[in-house]
């Protein structure tokens, strides 16, 4: 889909007709990662609009992702108007990159200025155990470096969009400061919220041990199959962005490979070597941890939103 063909006017018109006036101009957006759609339960006065009603939106086909936009209010008093994407699109589902980031561009056109993106991710760093929330400080986009998978490829959206977007400031220092202040206010343990670098891979396969080792050597702390296209589009739209990754599993990186050669030799010599079962990651494991930690993530996101200055 060339940028020019994006149906913004139609999508925005549908939303205008579906939403009451006080929810029509959200200032803050949330993207809910795998198993994290319950983040929207922090909102009140909620109006949910299914993606199927929205021109230009795809359908999220991944278990643990709903397929709707939830509009609502958060925080004391009249509340802050917020929109949450309950479910995202991943390139591995077969969606075009322009579809993957279309909701982000719609959020920007509704008036969203600050975006909180969440995801489930595998840990590459022994210091980031399962259950840790990681405030992403930087990223490595492997598909962008290895092939034409950058969502900003193609004709520019307009003269006001930079052709060459800098990314040294992609992850908002202002929002990350708020995240750590929010964690403090919530009384979270020091290791509940950490900092690290996210590696984006295309998926849908999980990493081989050698790939895990490679990503770790490249400076990444966590790895996932989403988020970075959204960050790039959001930055191109001029939004402040924070990414919060929930560590749902360790990427399997054994210190050394099992030597099948040695095992067979030992077996033939009548001295078989006992081996622990092979570890493998599953999406069910990812969803289970998401479920267990959804409340902490929800409280953190809600507190950050309350602390974002309203202008
Ligand atoms: O990044 P989110 O959408 O949270 O989901 C993560 O979990 C799925 C794999 O279990 C992949 O889609 C990966 O990116
Ligand atoms: N690529 C990748 N994505 C994930 N999402 C959740 N866990 C993982 C993981 O281990 N690897």
UniProtKB/TrEMBL annotation:
Question: Which top EC class is given?
Answer: transferase
**One matching Pfam family, short form?**
PNP_UDP_1
UniProtKB keywords = Glycosyltransferase, Transferase
Supply the PROSITE patterns for this chain: PNP_MTAP_2
The answer to keyword Transmembrane helix applying to this record is: no
Q: Which residues bind phosphate?
A: 34, 65, 88-90, 120, 226
Q: Which GO terms are recorded in the biological process aspect for this UniProt protein?
A: nucleoside metabolic process
Q: Where does a purine D-ribonucleoside bind?
A: 207, 249
Instruction: Provide the leader sequence positions.
Output: none
What are the transmembrane regions?
none
Name the EC number(s). Answer: 2.4.2.1
Which is an annotated GO molecular function term of this record? Answer: purine-nucleoside phosphorylase activity
Source domain of life: Eukaryota
Q: Tell me where in this chain the Nucleoside phosphorylase domain is found.
A: 27-253
GO CC annotation: cytoplasm
Function (record text): The purine nucleoside phosphorylases catalyze the phosphorolytic breakdown of the N-glycosidic bond in the beta-(deoxy)ribonucleoside molecules, with the formation of the corresponding free purine bases and pentose-1-phosphate.
Its family remark reads: Belongs to the PNP/MTAP phosphorylase family.
Protein name in UniProt: Purine nucleoside phosphorylase
Q: Which organism is it from?
A: Meripilus lineatus
Task: Please name the taxonomic classification of the source.
Answer: Eukaryota, Fungi, Dikarya, Basidiomycota, Agaricomycotina
């Amino acid at each position: 889909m060339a940028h020019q063909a994006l149906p913004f006017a139609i999508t925005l018109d549908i939303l205008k007709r579906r939403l009451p006036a006080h929810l029509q101009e959200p200032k803050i957006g949330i993207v809910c990662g795998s198993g994290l759609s319950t983040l929207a339960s922090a909102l009140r006065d909620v109006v949910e609009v299914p993606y199927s009603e929205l021109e230009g939106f795809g359908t999220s086909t991944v278990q643990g992702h709903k397929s709707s936009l939830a509009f609502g209010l958060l925080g004391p008093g009249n509340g802050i108007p917020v929109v949450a994407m309950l479910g995202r699109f991943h390139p591995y589902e077969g969606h075009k990159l322009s579809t993957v980031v279309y909701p982000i561009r719609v959020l920007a056109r509704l008036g969203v200025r600050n975006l909180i993106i969440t995801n489930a991710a595998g840990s590459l760093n022994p210091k980031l155990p399962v259950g840790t929330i990681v405030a992403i400080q930087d990223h490595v986009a492997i598909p962008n470096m290895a092939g034409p998978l950058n969502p900003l490829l193609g004709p520019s959206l307009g003269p006001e969009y930079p052709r060459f977007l800098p990314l040294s400031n992609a992850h908002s220092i202002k929002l990350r400061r708020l995240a750590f202040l929010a964690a403090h206010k919530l009384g979270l343990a020091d290791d509940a919220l950490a900092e690290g670098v996210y590696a984006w891979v295309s998926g849908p396969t999980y990493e081989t041990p050698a790939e895990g080792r490679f990503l770790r050597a490249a400076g990444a702390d966590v790895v996932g199959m989403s988020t970075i296209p959204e960050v790039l589009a959001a930055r191109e739209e001029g939004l402040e962005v924070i990414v919060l990754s929930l560590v749902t599993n360790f990427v399997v990186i054994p210190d050394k490979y099992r030597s099948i050669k040695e095992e067979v030799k030992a077996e033939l010599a009548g001295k078989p070597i006992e081996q622990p079962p092979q570890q493998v990651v599953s999406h069910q494991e990812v969803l289970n941890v998401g479920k267990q930690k959804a409340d902490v993530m929800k409280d953190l996101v809600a507190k950050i939103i309350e602390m974002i200055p309203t202008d």
